[in-house]
């Protein structure tokens, strides 16, 4: 008998994502976190956990055979009694709405910034999504082993660009070739970088401890005392409430490549980051400690092989203790689903999940039943909210090769939009279809799937619009006025909701000013 309760299991879980701009070091940091958690091993090292593995999931084989890649979507590891679920936010060319939506399934995030470059565009975009949900952010200033910007300058940039309070929890000693390590401002320790990576820890009594001189050159000690002293004075002290409300970010400095500062970062997440949060539904708030199991789907990974319709839906457990084989209500369809082969994800392995707890992510293999935004619930008829669609950043007009297939096209586009692959808008005037995505790769997936699964050949051409906003107003007349005055810019999304298509941000701002009673929304709750 398992005595663990959902509340106790939740208290020891940290579900988080890393947000960063390509090349800041997310992959390197992830690898070092997994190493720390024993989830991956250096070449030659014995896999200690190998023997303990339970039933291996077949999914890994299916993945390889059929070209579905879920390899790094979720990585679970344990350290010092805490289970960490690290969710991947796909970066580079695979940047997509999934990248944003993953952030709806986490309780906190780590923002990795390159010490020489500061805040970059993609980090900023991802940060905005975190802000929508007040997700607390821990900052890791990476690549201190290279020529970096002054730490104060970096912290100012974070504070000003993101409008956050900034509190350093470690302070770097030198940078580039002269980077010697960090001073741990929480536990008053000197952490010196070892040649072969990692850090050597020396306990001290404070910044004025004469022992510092034994370990560091005199000019370094002086600089450390000045800078760290100033940082302590100038920055607000760490405040848990403010951090958890998303107003303050604790900052760590380090070098992922040299495996330096990573253990302190993880400790910081373990100590401060919130456990699984209470989640909103259309009826009431669901606390993780509740007995009945609930969860929502935030991502669906489709098969690239058109012969198979295997999909894997990523479900975040929000409450209760999930057991394998359990029957859950699929709220959208009103049908029951028995989940026989739930998958837990490890860096190099998949396992059948015998049980899962609030904050955990399980993979549910299915044939297209589960969609992004779906709720699964053991008993109550509730729907989780807050898993929105995000305004697309790339819009394309769809060109149909064979005009006889226009009905098929509509069906295909709407169905793929429901699945969360792309968004679709039908223009009020002319009726042409516009598709919207946040990442280029989604467009390629769309063209391939429309052809392979629906037998319709399409091409995409530039659309005269840059972005879309869902428009809402309290009374119909206000909305009608906007629609009438802008017929060429209006469209409907797959659910029939009115959407304003903007040629540029200037036009969007102008319309907002002209129509103060209309809400132009960059997100839409999924139907
Ligand atoms: P990403 O996932 O955020 O895109 O970044 P990734 O970890 O792939 O790192 C991008 C580049 O930055 C890599 O170099 C990586 O080795 C380097 N890097 C990451 N962390 C650090 C660090 O702390 N210090 C230094 N000096 N470099 C770091 P690359 O040359 O592009 O790739 P590779 O050939 O080393 O794999």
From TrEMBL:
Keywords assigned: Cytoplasm, GTP-binding, Nucleotide-binding, Protein biosynthesis
Q: What is its main location?
A: cytoplasm
An annotated GO cellular component of this protein is: cytosol
- Superkingdom is Bacteria
Q: What is a single molecular function from GO for this protein?
A: translation release factor activity, codon specific
Q: Name one Pfam family in it.
A: EF-G_D2
Positions contributing to GTP binding: 20-27, 88-92, 142-145
Q: Enumerate the Gene Ontology biological process terms.
A: regulation of translational termination
Q: Does the keyword Cell inner membrane apply?
A: no
The record places domain Tr-type G at 11-277
Localization of this protein: Cytoplasm
- Similarity remark: Belongs to the TRAFAC class translation factor GTPase superfamily. Classic translation factor GTPase family. PrfC subfamily.
Task: Give the protein's function.
Answer: Increases the formation of ribosomal termination complexes and stimulates activities of RF-1 and RF-2. It binds guanine nucleotides and has strong preference for UGA stop codons. It may interact directly with the ribosome. The stimulation of RF-1 and RF-2 is significantly reduced by GTP and GDP, but not by GMP.
**NCBIfam families attached to this UniProt entry:** prfC (TIGR00503), PRK00741.1 (NF001964), small_GTP (TIGR00231)
The protein in question is named Peptide chain release factor 3
Phylogenetic placement of the source organism: Bacteria, Pseudomonadati, Pseudomonadota, Alphaproteobacteria, Rhodospirillales
């Amino acid at each position: 008998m398992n005595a663990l309760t959902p509340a106790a299991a939740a208290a020891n879980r940290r579900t988080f994502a890393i947000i960063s701009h390509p090349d800041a070091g997310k992959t390197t940091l992830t690898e070092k976190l997994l190493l720390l958690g024993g989830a991956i091993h250096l070449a030659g090292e014995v896999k200690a956990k190998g023997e303990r593995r339970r039933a291996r999931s077949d999914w890994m084989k299916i993945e390889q055979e059929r070209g579905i890649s879920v390899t790094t979507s979720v990585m679970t590891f344990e350290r010092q009694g805490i289970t960490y679920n690290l969710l991947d936010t796909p970066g580079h060319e695979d940047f997509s709405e999934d990248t944003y939506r993953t952030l709806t399934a986490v309780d906190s995030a780590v923002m990795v910034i390159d010490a020489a470059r500061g805040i970059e565009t993609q980090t900023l975009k991802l940060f905005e999504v975190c802000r929508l949900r007040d997700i607390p952010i821990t900052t890791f200033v990476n690549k201190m082993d290279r020529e970096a910007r002054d730490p104060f300058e970096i912290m100012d940039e974070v504070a000003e660009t993101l409008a956050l309070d900034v509190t350093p929890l470690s302070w770097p000693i030198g940078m580039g070739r002269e980077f010697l390590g960090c001073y741990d401002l929480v536990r008053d320790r000197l952490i010196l970088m070892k040649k072969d990576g990692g850090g050597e820890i020396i306990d001290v009594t404070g910044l004025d401890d004469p022992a510092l001189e034994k370990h560091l050159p005199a000019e370094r000690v002086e600089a450390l005392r000045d800078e760290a002293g100033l940082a302590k004075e100038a920055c607000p002290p760490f405040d848990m409430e403010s951090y958890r409300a998303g107003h303050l970010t604790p900052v760590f400095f380090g070098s992922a490549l040299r495996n330096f500062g990573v253990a302190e970062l993880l400790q910081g997440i373990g100590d401060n980051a919130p456990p699984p949060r209470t989640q909103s539904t259309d009826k009431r708030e669901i606390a993780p400690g509740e007995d009945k199991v609930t969860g929502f789907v935030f991502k669906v990974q489709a098969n690239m092989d058109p012969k198979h319709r295997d999909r894997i839906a990523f479900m975040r457990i929000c409450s209760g203790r999930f057991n394998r084989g359990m029957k859950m209500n699929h709220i959208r369809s009103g049908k029951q689903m028995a989940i026989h082969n739930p998958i837990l994800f490890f860096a190099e392995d998949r396992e059948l999940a015998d049980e899962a707890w609030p904050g955990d992510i399980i993979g549910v293999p299915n044939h297209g039943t589960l969609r992004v935004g779906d709720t699964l619930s053991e008993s109550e008829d509730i729907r989780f909210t807050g898993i929105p669609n995000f305004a697309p950043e790339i819009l394309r007009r769809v060109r149909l090769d064979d005009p006889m297939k226009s009905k098929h096209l509509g069906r295909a586009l709407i169905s793929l939009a429901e699945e969360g692959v792309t968004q679709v808008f039908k223009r009020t005037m002319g009726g042409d279809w516009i598709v919207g995505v946040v990442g280029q790769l989604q467009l390629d997936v769309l063209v391939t799937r429309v052809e392979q699964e629906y037998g319709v050949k399409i091409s995409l051409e530039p659309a005269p619009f840059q972005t879309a906003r869902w428009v809402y107003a309290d009374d119909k007349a206000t909305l009608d006025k906007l629609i009438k005055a802008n017929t060429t810019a209006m469209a409907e999304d797959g659910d029939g909701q009115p959407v304003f298509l903007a040629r540029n941000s200037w036009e969007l701002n102008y319309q907002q000013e002209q129509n103060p009673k209309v809400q132009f929304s960059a997100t839409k709750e999924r139907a």
